[in-house]
Input
Amino acid sequence: MTVAHTREGQLACVCIIHDKTKSIEFYRGQRWSSAKVEALEDTDGIGGAEVLLQVRGDDGNFQCLCLIRDRDRTVREYSDVAWTTVQIKAVTDTDGAPGKEVLFESRNPDNEVLCVCVIRDRGDELAIYTDSLWQAVEDSLLTNTDGQSGLEIIVPFARGSDSGITIIHDVSRTSKTYLFSGRHTIQHVGNYDRSQGDEICVLLPALEKFVLITDRLQEQEDVESCGEPMRSPVRM
Output
């Protein structure tokens, strides 16, 4: 596979070479001025990798996240007029079904988070997760908090002088938010109770205390310290 350009530097096509049949497939949308290959992953669980592109138009503005399904020679486009910037966070399993999901974050011109979004290419679905509490979103991470198939998306955020953590369960299309007085820092994520799923231990510096979130039970409790978990989460 290659991204080909003209002598003038314009996008010619995203070209996929089939060595077995000695043929080339050409992909280019009418609005495509530039295309960046973000990933080659199996996103539908059928076999063979799909090509994930971030496409921009002649004005340099974001046009779409596009998935080339070379198996059936089709292209799926995902976009929204409000998305100014899109950052791919991970291509991984968030719902426990065949095929990996595309997890990304979109922002508006003021650099405010519009959504944490998930493309489920298997069903041609776009899941949009957002919350009015998310005034300033920090780096998200992935881990399994409930012991079920699929990773949960952990979204730490600030809200004025306070803060919180939203845990997105993409497998059930739900989320749960845990709020804190003052700012927090995630100290450790791991299996503290040796039951299914990881716990999240945070420090509240202003209150000089630690809080352990057991999302499987939708509980949070004060603890003496965060100690050491058994393993670390996947940071995005």
